[in-house]
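hi! just following up on the protien thing from before. the input was this:
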Amino acid sequence: MTSNTSIIDELIKQQNPFAGHLIVKPQQIWGKSFPDVPSINAHASNAVFDAIEKIRQGQRTTLGITITAEKGLGKSHIISRIRHRLQAENDSLFIYMSKYDNLNQIKYEFLQSVTSSLRAFGSQKVMQWQEIAAALINETKQWNYTPQQYINNLYPSWLNKHSTKFVGLLAKLVHTIKPEISEPYIIQAILWTLSPIHVNYANRWLSGLEITPQEAEVMGLPNIKKDDRENESLRNVRQIIDIISHYKVPVVCFDELDNADMADNGLTTAQVIASLVKDLYNNLNKGVFLLAMYPETWNDQIRFLPQAEAAIDRLVSEKADREPINLNYLNSDDVVTLVQRWLQNFYQENQQTPPYLLYPFPENQLRQLGKEKPTIRSVLKWCAENFVTQGNNIDNLPKTETSTKTAHTSATIHPVKPYFENELANVEASIDSLMEEEATITDALVLAFNRLIGETVEGITIESIEEVEPSAANGGFIDFKIIGNKKKVRIGVDVVQQDYTVIGAALRRLIDYKTFKLTRGCLVRSKQISSNAKSAREYLRILLKEKGGEWVGLQSQDIKPLLAILFVYYNCESYELTEEQIFDFIEQKKLAINNPLIREILSDPSGQEPTNLTDDGLPISIPQTVATADFIELNL
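and the predicted 3d structure came back as:
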């Protein structure tokens, strides 16, 4: 660590640790988060930790906690604190839901959130699924092997000796000691997560997604029927969480409940989730439920639910007054501690020792700011705007969050830039999961193409971006159409990262130029299409060789900046940015017009499959040679 004021002042001119960090994103709930001050609103996070402890000690089985706070007070900071504390421990498991795309299918969407959460790494640096799978085997066989030992040594050895049938036999043994689990196939799928060559398929099956008949036969799993997906999803969720609760305390968190969406039955997002929690509370063996929302959402929506009292009793089951836990505004000590913590991280990462802990902010200014009872967001915004060296008249800086003077949003630096850079870092950290989010990738492409209307790119003058009609025949497969050159060019674009039946159905529509009034079909995909998918391969041949269509390889480096600006656009209100500022940034930085993915979609088709594709899933095969270290005979 060095201490040189001139070097530090130059560092301050180049970097602003506060800029672009006004909101906590889901990626920061799971990954590296913002600096946390555990003393700020400790009463809220401690309530969750106390609830977990009561369940551990057998004093309670289920508990519901609701946190209410105004925008920017730190609800998601509290959730992030809870997640990272639980990750460091080994007796709780965290499930998080913050996206509610279809309130009419909330049980299926909740299953997706549960399985996605369980794919995240837990305290043992493996998927939370794999921690549970190892615990199931260890209890059944009275062993004490780690998940890594099963993954790296034991499963490859067993597959080599017993073929894939051993998992079904092992699942039956587990079921003998867990007869209360009515769906043995869920146990079997969880056990498959320990196999490196089957984990992706197991995750798909547990998520309620279809796998190929070949995969289903090898793994001994029945394919899921879609005719009753909602009820089946809820049954499976209950089973999964009950299995978890034998070994860890499930903490199920619902965030971002304050949107204006409504289900067909007239219930809002918060009301739909409250009803779901009521059902889960009544039917699960063990767990903590945590909800976070605005006070007005609680007062105007939750209190007016049908059978509201029954729901409220479960949402705030630990409080005698049946009221949510309110977060507090910051005081002067909180402001000083918060800023000091952020600066400590900043100087440590850059290996510098500042002249004093709060440099370049005078402590009296921060304490004055604390007297105004600010939110965490407003403090961070103030710091971002006023992060200047002491030579820049810091004594005259304004004391409120409405400050417009800033060394980092001056005329030379675009106001969107720090938020874009922050979102880009978040995208970098979670690109593997984002590459599976077809709808998000599609939204990013649509935003980019809309900014190119009126431009000529790769010989096409873009006139409009349209939805695909007839919608019933499309069935949601082709994502959008690019119209250009006086409607002589009509490109149907479909982002498809799923496999088997989905890719076949998508390609079948992409070659139906007559129905969908296309002149070109364009598949956007990063993965190979399996040779076993016969119909999909035939549709692909027709698209490329007969119809003049194109398969554009989806490369992560190309989609990252488009995803980052999309997330800035999604959060423009929280970032206090206008759409015009975001559109101006896209134009200035040429994010759309110079993007290789955008240009490839518009360019003349090559008629060839792209290179640099990834596997469509790990192959179903048995390794011929495996290490036999630590081999344990199953004695099934």
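DSSP finds 29 helices and eleven strands in the chain.
The CA atoms of residues 469 and 516 lie 6 Å apart.
cheers
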